[in-house]
Design a protein that fits this description.
single chain, 196 residues, alpha/beta, six-stranded parallel β-sheet, 6 strands, 39% helix, P-loop_NTPase, Cob(I)alamin adenolsyltransferase/cobinamide ATP-dependent adenolsyltransferase, CblAdoTrfase_CobA
C-alpha cells in the first residue's frame, strides 16, 4: 500500500479512467460489462459511440434501453443514455466529407466535456473514441486535460485500437486485447449475438 494517507474507503471511491485498446475483439464488450455493473449499483450510465452508424442495430443498445426503462418505471438500477455520434466512419464510410465527420466528432467531444464538467453521469463509455483521436478530429491534449481534471466521482471507459500514448499514460486501467485467432480470418462473417 502506498503511504499517501488514503483510507480503504477513499481508495474504493476514486474514479477510474480505463482504456481498452489493441487489435483483439472484446474492447467494447468489456466496457459494456463494466457499464452493466455500474448500472446494477445505481450509477447513471451514458454511452457515446463514435464510429457506429445510427442505423446499425447494436445488441447492447437494446439491452441498455430496456435497463433504462426499468430504472425510469421502477427505480431499479441507474438511468441510461445512449448516443451515436457519427455516421459510421471506420470501415464503412458514409456520406459526407472527412471535414464533416471531424466536425461531428469534435461536437460530440464538446458535449461530453460539458457533461463531465457538470457531473451529469456517473459512468461514461466512449466507444471507439480512439479513432477520432488518431485521425486528429478531436484534440488529444484537450481530452487528456479534461479527463484528468474531471470533478467528482465519474468513471470513464474509452475503447478502440491504437490508443495514443498520452491517453494510456493518463489512464488508471489499460487493457490491450490481443488477437490470437478470429473466425473472420478464415472468411467467416459476423454473427448476431457475437458481433452485435
Amino acid at each position: 500500500m502506498p503511504d499517501d494517507g488514503l483510507t480503504t474507503r477513499a481508495r474504493r471511491n476514486t474514479p477510474v479512467l480505463a482504456v481498452h485498446t489493441g487489435a483483439g475483439k472484446g474492447k467494447s464488450t468489456a466496457a459494456f460489462g463494466m457499464a452493466l455493473r455500474a448500472w446494477n449499483i445505481g450509477l447513471n450510465v451514458a454511452v457515446f459511440q463514435f464510429v457506429k452508424s445510427a442505423k446499425w442495430k447494436v445488441g447492447e443498445e437494446a439491452v441498455f434501453g430496456r435497463l433504462g426503462s426499468l430504472h425510469d418505471e421502477h427505480g431499479v438500477g441507474g438511468a441510461v443514455e445512449w448516443h451515436k455520434m457519427g455516421a459510421g466512419w471506420s470501415w464503412s464510410r458514409k456520406t459526407g466529407s472527412d471535414a464533416d465527420h471531424a466536425a461531428a466528432a469534435a461536437d460530440g467531444w464538446t458535449e461530453i466535456k460539458r457533461r463531465l464538467a457538470a457531473q451529469r453521469h456517473d459512468f461514461y463509455v466512449l466507444d471507439e473514441f480512439t479513432y477520432p483521436l488518431k485521425w486528429g478530429w478531436v484534440d488529444l491534449d484537450d481530452v487528456v486535460a479534461a479527463l484528468a481534471s474531471r470533478p467528482g466521482y465519474q468513471h470513464v471507459v474509452i475503447t478502440g485500437r491504437d490508443a495514443p500514448p498520452q491517453l494510456l499514460e493518463a489512464a488508471d486501467l489499460v487493457t490491450e486485447m490481443t488477437k490470437v485467432k478470429h473466425p473472420m480470418d478464415v472468411g467467416r462473417k459476423g454473427q448476431k449475438g457475437i458481433e452485435w
